[in-house]
Amino acid sequence: MKRIGIMGGTFNPIHNGHLALAKVALEEFALDKVIFIPSGTPPHKRHQEVIDKEDRYQMVKLAINKIKGFEASRIELERPGFSYAVDTFSDLRKKCGKACKLFYIMGLDSISEILDWKKPLELFKLCEFIVGTRPGTKIRTFKRLVKFPPVQQEVDKIHLMELNENISASEIRERVKAGRSVKKIVPRVVESYIGRHKLYT
User: Fold this and answer.
1) Is residue 176 in some structural domain?
2) What is the pLDDT of residue 200?
3) What is the dihedral of CA 154, 155, 159, 160, to 10 degrees?
4) What is the pLDDT of residues 121-132, one digit of tens each?
5) In this structure, what are the phi and psi dihedrals at residue 132, rounded to the nearest 5 degrees?
């Protein structure tokens, strides 16, 4: 049975924290590959500055280009309307059937908000979760989440994994806007793309 990790998100922009989480997940959970899926129109970030989906997709492709076991998918970019994780995983499940096991790779902040998503409990039937925690992260909200009875029954499907990286996309956007360097926190090819296309300025 194939073990496939799904790394979803706005990737606004993709950064070294995303890559570190995916690399550790690939190795620690013996995944066959990790598929990066940039969201098309994220419903939970309507009021935030989210750049064009094609720019976000191109940065993802550039960032993972030479990393073995990483792929990029346009599945959410080509679906009209808002991008909902439950729809994406339903589509992926239909495509791979029982021949694969799906793992949703995300940060602690994302899973802590999962009950606000569309049909969140359906996701537990479609995949397991690999959750990356940042150094010094407060997990109070997460502890409350796993005490919620429907989630409590599925708690064995949530795997926590601590990382040393502590990078946020919002910090990168602020740095670019202020004309400060983003070296060492985004891949060099992504830094060049941001500069060339004058993103976040």
Assistant:
1) no
2) 95
3) 150
4) 999 999 999 999
5) -90, 130
Asked if 117 contacts 84 with a C-beta cutoff of 8 angstroms, the reply is yes
181 secondary structure, DSSP code: -
Residue 180 lies in a domain: no
In a domain? residue 200: no
- Number of structural domains in the chain: 1
Of all helices (H) and strands (E), which one includes residue 23?
helix 16-28
What tokens were used for 175? 């740095």
Residue 13 preceded by cis peptide, ω within 30 = yes
Note the pLDDT of residue 172: 96
Range of the domain at 87: 2-167
Task: Name which of 201, 197, 140, 137 is nearest 167 in CA terms.
Answer: 137
Strands 33-38 and 128-133: unpaired
In sequence order, what DSSP letters do the residues of 91-160 get, joined into one string? HHHHHHGGGEEEEEEEEHHHHHTGGGSSSHHHHHHH-EEEEEE-TT---HHHHHHHHSHHHHTTGGGEEE
CA distances from 155 to 68, 105, 144, 149, 152 (A): 31, 15, 12, 10, 5
190 Cβ neighbours under 8 A, 6+ residues apart? 13, 14, 15, 59, 62, 63
Rg (CA), the chain: 16
